[in-house]
Amino acid sequence: MNGVVRRLAAAGAGVAMLATTAVGLTALPAAAKATKGVYATVPVATPKNHKGECPVDVTFTSKIKVKVKGKTTVSYRWLHGDGSKSKVKKVTLRGNGVKYLTVKEKVTFKDDVTGWQALQVLAPVKTTTKKGHFSVSCQASNPDAIVFKRPNWAKASVDVEDYRGVCKPYTKVTAEGVIRVGEPTWVKYRWIHNGKVVDSGKTKVYGAKKVYYSFHPRHSHNGWVKLDIVSPRRNVDARDSYTVTCVKPIDRPRPAKAWASVSGPGAYKGVCPVGRVFKGTVSVNRGTVVKYRWAGPGYTGPVETLYFGKHGPKSKVVAHTVKFTDSGVARRWIEVLSPNGSVSNVGAARVECAKPTPPTPPAKVTGVSVTAAPAACEAGKAPAVNVTGTISVNGKTTVAYRWVLNGKTVQSGTAEVDGTATVSLAVDPASQGDKTSGVVALVVTGPNLEKAVKHFSFSCPSQATTA
Q1: What is the pLDDT of residue 433?
Q2: Domain that holds residue 84
Q3: pLDDT given at position 6
Q4: For residue 2, which of 26, 136, 143, 326 sits 20 to 30 Å off, Cα-Cα?
Q5: Extended beta strands in 271-343, E state
Q6: Across 230-239, average pLDDT
Q7: Are residues 113 and 163 in the same domain?
């Protein structure tokens, strides 16, 4: 019976709930219970102890104090001594500060009862008041009414189940008792657990009735439970022994789970073909073996395996390369195949292939020739000299060159060459000390290094053959 006295409303007893209203309170009685700003008083029964005709209405009243901020909903229900509960009621309060409610429940009783009523506030926070006790003693006004005679005996039997398993806070062992009487009568009884009275009650018995007591074992032990008949005292008690064996819970490992994430390499603009690398991270919640593969639109990669040790890292980085030969976008993700199935996010790589710059063709000096200028020749003097060079290119480009005379650069320039081009140099004998002889070189300095060298010697009035 879980420590409560059963309330015996007859089988057809009607229950009517009164409307909940709010009233001002200056203070709550000392018996009120407070939890985080919510206060509730112990229910008061009116009448508290009824003796007279039945059926009779008993009204239970409790007061609730609530701290309100804005809009606050108060939910509550009534707890009855027979183990039943009323429906949950809700009242919405608005405003700020302390608000008060008076809540009531009216119950109609058709038979004798000794019991209690409590109020349980469910919201905004949960709290339960202490029990408010009451009694109803029905006395017939009709002298011809049938009155049960007090029986001359009552007896009990009890059975307690043994328990073996994990002893958790909610583990419950139940003793079942049966009270039997010779004639219908009220029976007072109590439960005794290992020598200590733990519960008591009073109930009307017609032939036989079951009552219950439960407890929560915290450790292994042997014990006994007794159902003691207080009145009428004849064949007064029954007792049964039990054994509780608490075992350790089986430590089952968590199911292995794996998941992945992917990041793309971003955008690229440049020469193709090019490889772009996607990076992925595979993670697990414990040591396991993971099978996965890379996938994408129109692509499914081979299945790969990763091993995660029991005490090692729980994440590993993997990579996947996509080769681009043309501009476009590639998308990739990771599919986890075991120990569970999951799919990562999608990573992307965008490539814009640039046109390659054609290579610059090399230049070549194909010849250097030196000729005298007879018209400028005077007896005993050196003639002027004209030097001509030919540059050849397999294509079209701009060539940089310089003339070197007797080891000294005397002229530099550039020339647009489309196949071949001719460049020239005029040598003034006066600048050579009236000597027309030496070594001349045509040097190409770009796009590559190339040169040709020519030795020469001239005198007047006749032209000498070049060396």
Answers
A1: 60
A2: 15-138
A3: 35
A4: 136
A5: 274-284, 288-296, 299-300, 304-308, 315-324, 328-338, 342-343
A6: 73
A7: no
